[in-house]
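Q: Entry one of two.
A:
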Amino acid sequence: MTGHMFDHAKEAFSFIESLDDLETPQDVIDVMDKSFALFGFENFIITGLPNPKERFEHVVLLKKWPDGWFETYSKNDYVRADPIIRLCRNTVNPFSWSEASYDRVGEPKAADVMDRATDFRMVKGFCLPIHGINGYEACLSMSGVDLDISSHTKPALHLMSMCAFERIRKLLSPSAFRGTNQLTLREREALVWAAAGKSAADTGAILGITERTVTAHIVSACQKLGPTNKTQAVARAIHI
């Protein structure tokens, strides 16, 4: 592992550890701003994905957007044409903005969204879709000009983003986290090794248990926490 790669991992876990001490949404914004800037990100937003009857500005949980962009985005109802939002609804995997395709000729408003965003230094981006088991849809989207997005940094950004979302949701809706079943030590260990990229077989060898047992621990943890994937389970496990 190179020093550069190690720094990304170190920053990710330092960021995650700091979240527990944050008491307000503004605290989360400040910490996100500092940590995500190391990857080149200048702006970010955590928002629900509005249904046809909802206004975009009513489902935003947290944002650090350039002055004027939020008003422009809301006024033009860009959320209905934004290719980033569209891809969020159709995938559970994190993606770079460049992966959100659209037809510049056939979808002029989609093109307008992306073109206008560049006026606010929102040239490139990374987005984490969030799909809850009860149908809730949200995302964390980050942007900037010169970004460090690679196969080495994406796992760190994924985990940091999910943990940030979980922390802000807990701050805004603490009652939703009451009565959560506690994880066992083995369940937490299995999730942490999964977040580090280890397979069930690798984790079994590390912990001295069978691959089947590791899988059972992960499944059990996911059933307790209700996440849609292992990374989200790790995010929740860290905060319990």
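Q: Entry two of two.
A:
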Amino acid sequence: MASARTKTPRPGTPVRGSRTGRPIMALLDLLGRRWALRVLWELRDAPATFRALRERCDDISPTVLNARLKELRESGIVELSDDEGYRLTDRGVALRNALVPIAEWADTWGGGGGRKRPS
């Protein structure tokens, strides 16, 4: 049997940080996986083929990209269309919209936000 670490996190099942699989913990487990947020973010504005997505993600390994896309598809966040490649589902768009305030905060933080930036 595969470990909880290799299975796609799902609300209601044990995930990292939660034996009960609270929805927020399942989401954090999913998005905390290597490259998951980057893949999601690179699909935020437009669909992409596997090759284009790999390039957008700085040549992520095909094995890791396949694993992340599989998990994001199983979670209903990403889908594969016949004509456009991978794209966000309605659920994925809602997640992207929820992440926008975090991206805006990060831009402010990266712009100085109290810390001296290296020259």
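A: Comment on entry two: The longest strand covers residues 78-81. The two ends are 51 Å apart (CA to CA).
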